[in-house]
Amino acid sequence: MADRRSMTSKLNAQRSTGPRTPEGKAAARLNAMRHGIYTQVCVIDGEAEAELVAFGKRLRAEFAPVGEFEL
Predict the structure, then answer these.
(1) What is the Cα–Cα distance from 21 to 23, expressed in whole angstroms?
(2) 65 vs 52: CA distance, rounded Å
(3) Which is nearest to 55 in space by CA: 37, 43, 68?
(4) Which of 3, 25, 28, 71 has minimal Cβ neighbours within 10 Å of its Cβ?
(5) Are 57 and 64 in contact (CB under 8 A)?
(6) Residue 38, C-beta contacts closer than 8 angstroms, at least 6 positions apart
(7) pLDDT tens for residues 20-47?
(8) If you count DSSP H runs as helices and E runs as strands, how many of each does the chain have, helices first?
């Protein structure tokens, strides 16, 4: 049973190589945007950085966070 599971795992790993086409790679580069934790881009296509900054300022003014954790 362990051999069968190991073989299945190896076969699945060979298929899971990530995006290969330029289109797939372009789409995958935005995967981290779901959470924003590890993203390298703060503004996605079609957004303006100034609007994002203004939105952040409005949120901070409304919620008045105290300390880095709340911020």
Answers:
(1) 5
(2) 18
(3) 43
(4) 3
(5) no
(6) 32
(7) 899 988 888 777 766 667 777 777 778 8
(8) 4, 0
